[in-house]
């Protein structure tokens, strides 16, 4: 303990930067909370705090406050000490309370957010849709964009795994459209650019109905229709409905729906049909690429250059991944 | 050849009953046809005839007639001899022509048909739907029955595998509803009879759009939307649309759609979601039972009691199946 | 702690009904027990209590009593408080002792028991066996029923998973015979009722040798022959021996044995052969149906209507299952 | 044709040695036969002849003789020409008749036979069984050897795949016992020699009931009990019965049965249980080794040194296998 | 036959364009040849001709010429008739002889060749290698390019499946380098452009040793080292050797080798290790994309727009693939 | 606690022999260590000690000493009490310090070591290599033995699983050479003894580069090249290089490399190619046998005769394994 004698208090420090022995203070996101009774018969609170740098667990002993599991997803104010427990960092606050309306909080610090600017990404998506030569495909896209603009711009791309931050769906979609544009040129003899770009825009639109979101906009769970039908079905059903309302040719409606229902590639990964045309194949592949590159980016955050990740990475075939020493031109 | 000296000509004989050396004559279904050039430079016709007992291949040498592959699915008149070629029976007609309007043909002989009366099966289905206590589920079923009554009553249940005969879909559906009724009583504490029966009626409704049919009503191929989306998606999409039009509660619509998209059980068998409630589980199981029992029935036709099938049966896990000697009380 | 001030003591309350903060008192089954040393150097007892409603873990601090792991399976008397630890309910008794001979205990409360009356189920099984037209099949069944009557009537159907309660094997067998009777009528053209019913009765008879049981009749483990040979082998071996002693025709003996060794369907699920006749196929399917319906019943107990289970259900393909809101006619 | 002008007639030549253009004459085994009608309306006979060097197909045009498919398995006399058809060698006899009683035929030439002397292999098996220290294991083996001595000595080891020749089961068993003896010494600290050797002797004893054999002793098909129960079950059932009759300790009976039912290693390869003790593991492995080495031996017969096999070898993971150039010390 | 009365002779016509009944004449590649004896005892020649449009089988009756299977891979001159046999087109030449030195043949017509200009592709590869900032990676690439320049420029990319034409390996490599450049920019924060581009160039370099080629440059078979070690091993071994000779840092050598041995993604597809860094992941994905796009291109050649392929496409998950009607802006 | 009143202190006792309640004192290997903060705010040390009998976890409360996770792999001196925590034995030392240079420690007690004498095993390996008739194969082996003699003699055979003790690689190699010699005689008609024995010696030589080792010689982790390339690749690359330096015939080099890269049998177990010749097949099988026998030996250590292992054994198909009661001749 002696080595922490002259400790200072770190204010609103990123959770990922905290180390055992430090003192902390600031606003964080209450990710989860449970009240429990300790072996000495006294109640305590077990919880997890998060900000846009990561998450940490914590315990508050002899807790008689008002926070319960129902407060998950709220902002809180906390102050206390950082400790180490079984080789894991954990928070030991002296004080923990729900944030109040009068508190001045920079929400963008609390919630993980896409590393790119949402407005610019949105502008790119809209420009690209405007560039579609085929009015039918463009029409379906714009109709659904109009209907879901706000959710589409804000929703994370997933509950965990990859793009699980604000604007994650938008970022994932925009990056895929960028790739789609490249491949439509590269394989222009067998690929219809309009179909591929429209489907790249629409492919995850069913996630808007598949997710339940927390007060601060993160995905907290799957919705009932998400679990019973899945986002591939939901997206293709809604796109089909829009196509029928607009009266576009059946051939084009079927192709759009096919690209959506097949974009997970194989049945074992959730595809309703395997990809059966070149555009469907490409859509599957670029979805895979962007998902996995994002998982590498995340894994690299915790892996020093020239070393292997300390944990296996579930989404990357459960491998230890390697961050090359040579990837930085020295 | 000597042993066939005093041969008589069999008229409209079931194809399955013909044996090498016999002579035959009558009307049959032209299943397929190809013209070709023999090694001596002369053209010949290679074809398959079918009736409700089965199929046989045939060859007509030195053929200069008008029949081509485009005539597949038509009725023809043929006469000639039954031969054996590499342990397979084949037809060697002297004469083969398309049937004419003035020919009097008993079509029911040509096309395989369900072993039960279609009107009685249809009446059973309607009575059972009328017995549903839940007006919402009943409403969706009746709406789709009204829309597709004729196709639903006539269509085969599959292209091959099982129930590939006229009224096959109806027979399969009616038998499953009968089972559903039994299980709804047996497990009444956890099963909603109305949901299970409605979904039993609707589960294969998407096949009406998945199949292409021949002039005489058999399934000749899969449709474009059948291949790009599949009958689980198509059925659930249409049932969902009907439910929305009728304004039934969302919970019930979702359950109906879930039972339809999950009725193949596992992703590897085409299920869009695995069954997640008791009714979905039961629907999957009784679909499996009726399909496999029908395949046993078909396989037994070619298997003497007390023996194993001469061929592996693809749909029954590619096994040689056994027809017990004891299944007939002697 | 303040909120539990006026607490009353619940007597012999079902464990599933207890909530944190309550006080309890009564007789329970000691499912397991371990003595340990706490970090303060004092011994304590870690244990699990069970009754027919479920199980709960518990800890008794500063324990110097006589209970050890060897007492698992005995009845105990306990009194104390219900607590919460890491979102799990646990028992914190002040007092815990083995039940004595003079204690008056309602054993049916302690041990999970089939929801149907054992005598009535046994009567149904016997009547149905009497109804078999084939004296050979009936003879084998009655011979084994005579030999194992008491065990057959009492044993659970499994160690965990499904029907893991007293009379579980009987309940599972009786329900399957009920289904077998239905299907024998439905598919009477290809199914021998006597064979199917006899095999439904016999199919799990090998479990009598496969299980080790606790003093109160539950399955505590697998026996040595159970692990080295399995209940499919054991059942088919014993049924074959009985058939030989009775001198029934070899064809019938082989069929009975085949149905027993194939009733798990696929090699990966433990089947020694895949089902090769219609009766074997049906036996496999109805075993699957009754097992899975029982798992849904159990999972529904902990799942409110209109919600998904909080845990994945291992035996149901490791899915979150859904208990429909609509399954109760409101 | 010109190049075969001065051809001589090869008498009783091994079929494998015949080349297109040669003339042949002699006694062979009729493996199969089918009568058929050619496109010119005339009957012909399609057949396969075999001897201990291999098999060849053949055709006899304008055939009016008495041979039918029922004569398969008989010896025949044939003379004619060797031809080539679609890169396959085939026989074109002028003459083909069933062998008569008065014909002097060296049967050992017709039927493939183990490359080692049967009597010496039998003597090795008996000496090794006599060397078992454990009278219980020895007793079970000798009892079954006594019961099946002749069949055990003569039967092939399989229908195809490996050891499909007379005395094949004996050769496979003797070689495995030789290996078992080696490994029992190598791992003497964890392996019971008597158990391992007894099980090596017994492991395929169920094949005696699993196979149907042709008049000349080859395996022509699987028996009904072979298909419905399999040789692992049949062998373990019979060994168990013998053990009970001899009253050997239950532990030893269970171990013998366990080694028999587990010797295919994994469920997907037919094992009823996976190997659970060191002896069971070894038995599985040495069965695998001897089976695969025999398949290499067979494949090498058709593969020149320094080349790959022309066909994939089904039993060796469907690979092209390589016969090293270096395996012959030059 | 009547419809071909006034037939003209097509000279050097692409094989894919020939239809039954036409006459043809010209130079083609002899893909394979076999002499055989017909049922009338006369010899004939069975063969396949190829040009850069495809392949056709043929038969030449009563053939007494000099061509044997050893002439496969040579150019021949043929004239005769196009016929149809069992729904397959086949050639029936009157005349077939090996091409002679004095014949004037346009070889580029005979052998399938990449659709892009080889020199321009080669220039692109060299310019791109020159653009690598890292002299180590660049050095290894240039060293191997120098060593194998001619083979690398000419070899097909495969024996069948995809890019099985002259310059196929170059075309596949150049396209992948183009994609690599795009992705290195898109994911520049986690991807080392030099490593990715170098590995894209090297990834299939082992194929130069894995293939055996025919006289005209196509892949006729796998080499011995190709079958015993595989091109992933061979390429990584050679690249490693070159890296050691150049003395580049071990980290870079390991990364290059890792990208080569992992570029098939999963062990079941031949990867020696799974991809463990972002560059390895990308290399695997872009290899997959270019392979599959090429298979779509080939499959589309035989599939009319708006229809499904007539055959399942083995390399595309054995699916019927669909060529959209909408892919051509009308 | 009373029952431990008159306890004595056990000195340098094997960890596996310690039981709760005893006192201990002596030198052990520090397997791992972590400092942490307890819920009372005081630091403690969590660690694992090991010796050649096994491992035990431990905790030291109120720890202010110098030991950190960086000391893992060092020898320590410890004294204290053995306790039980949640049915697991754990150490509760009063005292724990790093061993000093002046301490007299029998290192062979601390580190698990092969049960056979290393010098005798090494002598066997060298004699056997000397017996190779083929100077080429012998040359490659001796060259690599010379280069790696010390590591080869000392290294464990694995990080965990099997042969994870000093000299484990040598013991595994020697035992496999012994088996190879046996099989080369048994199947001498198709097996080249020199090739098989050379590859048996070389098969795991790549592990010398694949492992990182701790100060006391155990495998602490995989090296970077081990993870990026694997020991099959590394071994075959090095053997190939040696073969090239010695100028041995290419055929022999390829065979050696093939046996090394294929010795894991199937791609899913890490084989780069499947075994394609008889020697490769045998090498795979005997590697499997020796690995699994060693796992049985280890599992038997914790399993009383006549009982099943208390835990599933991961490496043995995750089964409970059985140690026969009969394996000891009483």
> Helical stretch count of chain A?
10
Mean pLDDT of chain A: 90
Q: What share of the residues of chain A lie within helices?
A: 25-40%
User: Can you summarize the main beta sheet of chain A?
Assistant: 6 strands, mixed
- Cα-atom radius of gyration of chain A: 23 Å
Oligomeric category: homohexamer
| Largest interface between protein chains, with number of residues from each side | A-E, 49 and 49 residues
Secondary structure tally: strands of chain A: 10
Give the CA-based shape of chain A.
Answer: elongated
Which class do the helix and strand fractions of chain A yield? alpha+beta
Order of helix and strand elements from N to C terminus of chain A: EEEEEEHHHHHHEEHHHHEE
Low-confidence segments of chain A: 1-5
Amino-to-carboxy terminus distance of chain A? 39 Å
What amount of the residues of chain A lies in strands?
15-25%
Task: Describe the protein's architecture and organization.
Six copies of one chain form a homohexamer. With 330 residues, chain A is an alpha+beta fold. Helices cover 39% and strands 20% of the residues of chain A. Chain A contains ten helices and ten strands. Chain A has helices at 107-110, 118-130, 135-154, 168-186, 193-202, 207-210, 224-229, 231-246, 250-261, 278-301; strands at residues 9-11, 23-37, 43-51, 54-60, 75-85, 88-98, 211-213, 219-222, 307-308, 322-323. In chain A, the strands form three sheets. In chain A, strands 1, 2, 3, 4, 5 and 6 form a six-stranded mixed β-sheet that branches. Chain A has a two-stranded antiparallel ribbon with strand order 7-8. A two-stranded antiparallel ribbon of chain A has the order 9-10. In chain A, strand 5 (75-85) and strand 6 form a beta hairpin. In chain A, helix 4 packs antiparallel against helix 5 (193-202) and helix 4 packs across helix 10. The longest helix of chain A is centred in the last third of the chain and has 24 residues, at 278-301. Chain A is elongated and about 70 Å long. Chain A starts with 8 loop residues before the first strand and ends in a 7-residue tail after the last strand. At the A-E interface, helix 4, helix 9, helix 10 and strand 10 of A face helix 4, helix 9, helix 10 and strand 10 of E.
